[in-house]
Design brief:
The structure is a single chain. This protein has helices at residues 10-26, 62-68, 79-94, 116-119, 154-159, 196-200, 229-251, 292-297, 312-320, 333-336, 375-386, 424-442; strands at 38-40, 44-47, 50-53, 105-107, 113-115, 144-146, 164-172, 184-194, 257-264, 267-277, 280-290, 304-311, 361-368, 390-400, 407-415, 445-446. It has a seven-stranded mixed beta sheet with strand order 4-7-8-12-11-10-9. It has a four-stranded antiparallel beta sheet with strand order 14-15-13-16. Strands 1-2-3 form a three-stranded antiparallel beta sheet, covered by helices on one side. The longest helix has 23 residues, at 229-251. By secondary structure, the protein is an alpha+beta fold. It is globular and about 75 Å long.
């Protein structure tokens, strides 16, 4: 869904119209109808009307595929939807043209299926990079996957003609299991591109420029090759002012913030923004000056850009006092009803009040390893077997036999439903299934 396009002089209107058509035709998904969004068979996966042939890279489980159709960012009164709209409002009200039109295009209905080229190569992530690992991503097949970040669309939207935009969407990653991690979460991506006049001002000192000749293929410690120091300093100032304003809009003007230098593969320099919340410093977003090769592949020559990304789920949990990420997926009316009177005004309190706490059931599984063992794959198996009944999986014992050099691991699984009391008998059935599948998948010897 595209909220509004910024108004440009008539000479550029054709570019914006073309961008709008490209987005509508190639990137966005229609609203759900009576047809299934996802259909699974032995040889194919059908999603959003497209059929994909499975191959050796296919590793998406039915448990994850069921989440694709939920579209939480579009559920009325859902805290993720409310937070998304508040961020859109900040940019639309704060950054406007001389005619009073919003400068940032807001997009929140982009298909989660992307090519591996979009997800990795378009962001200068080379083949063989750990970020491409099968254990960390959900592959539909060798060519397509569920996106791991909304950054997968940066290059395409830049190429379509947009120079300032926001993209919100669901993203998918294989990860650990606890109250803060889930295989599906939601991101907000923001991009701002600037010409020399937009960055330094019309009629600026002619000694100021965006680019300088490259002297090597290696980055400077503080900037990319080809970027001038003046341009990077001004980009940093613009980026930090914009995002500090966003955080104060969401958390309140008195929130304490600090910037921390960091490293990301598709920005340099890169920064994380932290806020002091409930007595501790918490990272709320990552950002940086975009790799120039991304802009060049999007045909945005003569410009520099910054980008940021933030996790909507984590922010919603902080702002709404939600203790378990699984609650965001709850279909219990007692959850969503608490947000029905919340407005888009960020001053409105949206604290969640827990309506129940069902008892937990704890089960351990321990085994000797015989071959290579990737922990994320074990977590994924646990999700497939236990679904949302599994609250946490933690390694509680790990040792290596000094005589045989064999390695042993013991994991504790916490089973707890969000909406019902579960019996020990029901959990035992799941635990027995997990033990059987662990033997088959990892060739282990149970202890």
């Amino acid at each position: 869904q595209i909220d509004r396009f910024k108004m440009e002089p008539l000479a550029n209107c054709w570019k914006l119209c073309r961008a709008r058509l490209l987005i509508a035709r190639n990137f966005t998904s229609p609203s759900p109808t009576g047809k299934k969004i996802v259909e699974l068979s032995d040889k194919t996966i059908k999603m959003f009307g497209e059929s994909y042939v499975k191959d050796e890279m296919t590793n998406i489980s039915p448990v994850v595929l069921q989440k694709v159709a939920r579209r939480l960012l579009h559920v009325p009164h859902h805290p993720l939807n409310i937070l998304k709209q508040r961020i859109f409002n900040y940019f639309h009200k704060t950054f406007v043209s001389r005619r009073g039109q919003p400068l940032y295009t807001a997009i929140d209905n982009v298909l989660p299926v992307v090519s591996t080229e979009q997800n990795f190569s378009s962001l200068a992530i080379p083949k063989g990079h750990p970020l491409r690992s099968k254990s960390d991503n959900y592959y539909i097949n060798s060519e397509f996957m569920l996106r791991t970040h909304t950054s997968a669309h940066q290059r395409d939207f830049i190429r379509s003609g947009l120079d300032r935009f926001l993209v919100a969407g669901d993203v998918y990653r294989r990860d650990e299991i606890d109250s803060k991690h889930y295989p599906v979460f939601h991101q907000m991506e923001g991009v701002g591109l600037f010409t020399s006049e937009e960055l330094f001002g019309v009629g600026h000192d002619p000694s100021l420029s965006l680019f300088e000749p490259k002297t090597s293929d290696e980055d400077h410690c503080d900037r990319q090759q080809g970027h001038t120091q003046d341009a990077v300093q001004e980009m940093e100032r613009n980026l930090k002012n914009t995002l500090t304003g966003l955080v104060r809009y969401l958390f309140g003007k008195d929130i304490q913030t600090q910037w921390v230098a960091c490293t990301f593969p598709f920005t340099h320099p890169s920064y994380e923004l932290e806020v002091q919340f409930q007595g501790e410093w918490l990272e709320v977003l990552g950002s940086g000056v975009m790799r120039q090769c991304i802009l060049e592949s999007g045909s945005a020559t003569g410009r520099m850009g910054w980008a940021f990304g933030l996790g909507l789920d984590r922010l919603a949990m902080l702002l709404c006092n939600i203790s378990d990420i699984r609650l965001l997926w709850s279909e219990d009316e007692r959850f969503i009803s608490q947000f029905k009177k919340v407005t888009l005004n960020p001053a409105t309190d949206i604290k969640f009040v827990p309506f129940s706490k069902y008892p937990a059931c704890y089960k351990d599984i321990s085994f000797w390893l015989n071959n290579e063992f990737i922990e994320n794959d074990f977590f994924e198996l646990a999700r497939q077997v236990g679904g949302d009944w599994i609250e946490k999986v933690e390694l509680i014992d790990h040792f290596r036999d000094p005589t045989s050099t064999r390695e042993s691991r013991c994991y504790r699984l916490t089973y707890r439903s969000m909406d019902q009391t579960i019996t020990n008998e029901a959990v035992n059935k799941l635990q027995d299934q997990l033990r059987e599948e662990t033997i088959k998948l990892f060739d282990v010897n149970l202890r």
